[in-house]
Amino acid sequence: MVNGGELLLESTIPADVVRALTQRGHRVRYDIGGFGGYQAILWDRENGVYHGASEMRKDGQVVGY
H/E/C letters for each residue in the chain? Predict the structure, then answer.
């Protein structure tokens, strides 16, 4: 990206991060919605184990058996 770009951020992004982004030429705006979430399970074939994660803002959890 040349000369930054526009970023839509959640209100929980720390001020020092926002400041660093604007110093790099990005235009920063805050938004209250439209952000996705992440929940996943990954099979690690090499080690024979599952890895899982659930974003803290989601109401899910990782369960394996």
Answer: CCCCCEEEECCCCCHHHHHHHHHCCCEEEECCCCCCCCEEEEEECCCCEEEEEECCCCCCCCCCC
Torsion, CA 39, CA 63, CA 60, CA 53, rounded to 10: -30
Sign (positive or negative) of CA dihedral 22, 26, 29, 35: negative
Residue 33: Cβ-neighbour burial (10 angstroms; 0-12, 13-18, 19+):
exposed
> Model's pTM, two decimal places?
0.51
Which residues, including other chains, have CB under 8 Å from residue 62's CB and lie 6 or more apart? 39, 41, 52, 53, 54
Confidence tier at 65 by pLDDT (50, 70, 90): low
Q: Which residues pair with 9 in a beta bridge?
A: 30
